[in-house]
Write a structure and sequence with these properties.
Elements (H helix, E strand, L loop, with lengths): L5 E4 L11 E4 L16 E4 L6 E2 L5 E2 L26 E4 L22 E5 L2 E7 L4 E5 L5 E5 L14 E3 L2 E6 L4 E9 L5 E9 L9 E4 L2 E6 L6 E6 L5 E4 L11 E6 L2 E6 L4 E5 L6 E6 L14 E3 L2 E6 L2 E6 L4
Antiparallel strand pairs: 1-6, 2-3, 4-5, 7-8, 8-9, 9-10, 11-12, 12-13, 13-14, 15-16, 16-17, 17-18, 19-20, 20-21, 21-22, 23-24, 24-25
Length: about 325
């Protein structure tokens, strides 16, 4: 505890740790006996309301966390191997960081620019909701909460087509599409067209082709490739029900009418997008594969396919012969 700030630093090994709750008891006080010691601070990380435990102790709603990841207790925790996560409890402080319902940050998602009835908007899936703002003055236009998960870990870029915006995330959220239109006053109206937990896209991204969405469904526990109808959310096919489950959870890129799919385990697969069935047109194994999950998206540029595995980059010639 320094200058009123309590700092916790985790060293991440396989999964990123998260703060479930913080209890600060001033020196000399006791937490025993079911009473609340004078000056004790208890915060239920990621929660929107207070909680009374079996000992009668009251845990206050999320407040004062900055940096790191908080856990509202609704879903499993996990993340990418990497650097330290930090959780800081500041008594009486404001909301901060990127985890939990109290977070107002931008999460990991890149914004997209769309045009609706001649008005340019920037659309982004933030830590709390899918939102649209005016490109000319930053004015808030609309909001759709369902695609954002309670962890605030939203990674996949939204998709805009034919007046509809689709977005999805993992950690129990899934995806949904919202129809944008104008009300009688001219304001932007956002109405849910459909929602589904069948596209719980963690961070691999989603491709729209021929009116269908292609991407992986699943979080830290793994997953599989799935195809949904863009307008209705109907599942057209998925690899979960396949006898062989030829492709598991992965990251996507699209070029020259083909989906380049990097599975989390490592194999790179070439897929012909089809609304009817899974059509594999080739695959190969990356050499010098590490033991860590492969999360980097494949990149295709100037006839070259780029594949990254931690600190190693591979380049393949994929030009037509």
């Amino acid at each position: 505890m320094t200058n009123g700030e309590f700092r916790i630093v985790f060293t991440s090994q396989v999964e990123n740790p998260a703060i479930k709750a913080i209890e600060l008891i001033p020196q000399g006080n006791s937490a025993a006996g079911g009473t609340s010691p004078a000056g004790a601070i208890r915060i239920n990380a990621g929660a929107a309301s207070s909680f009374t435990d079996s000992s009668g102790q009251v845990w206050q709603p999320d407040s004062g966390f900055e940096g790191g990841m908080t856990n509202p207790g609704l879903v499993a925790i996990g993340g990418a191997p990497g650097g330290a996560d930090r959780g800081r409890g500041r008594p009486g402080g404001g909301f901060g960081g990127f985890g939990g319902p109290g977070a107002s940050g931008a999460a990991y998602v890149s914004p997209i620019a769309i045009d609706l009835d001649g008005q340019r908007q920037y659309v982004q899936l933030t830590a709390k909701a899918l939102v649209g703002v005016s490109a000319s003055d930053g004015k808030f236009l609309w909001q759709y909460d369902r695609p954002a998960n309670p962890m605030g870990i939203n990674c996949s870029t939204p998709i805009f087509h034919d007046g509809m915006v689709f977005a999805a995330s993992a950690y129990g959220a899934g995806g949904g599409a919202v129809k944008l239109s104008r009300d009688s006053s001219g304001a932007v109206k956002a109405e849910e067209a459909w929602s589904s937990r069948q596209m719980e896209n963690h961070h691999g991204g989603v491709i729209l082709h021929d009116g269908a969405l292609f991407g992986s469904n699943g979080g830290n526990g793994g997953g599989y490739l799935i195809c949904l109808d863009f307008k209705t959310g109907e599942v057209l096919w998925n690899e979960k029900d396949s006898d062989k489950r030829r492709v598991t959870k992965g990251s996507v890129a699209f070029a020259d009418g083909r989906i380049y799919y990097r599975t989390e385990e490592g194999p790179i697969v070439l897929i012909e997008p089809s609304r009817k069935e899974y059509l594999e047109r080739g695959r190969f194994e990356q050499p010098e594969r590490t033991k860590l999950p492969a999360w980097a998206h494949p990149v295709i540029a100037n006839g070259k396919l780029y594949i990254r595995d931690q600190d190693t980059l591979f380049c393949y010639d994929v030009k037509a012969k």
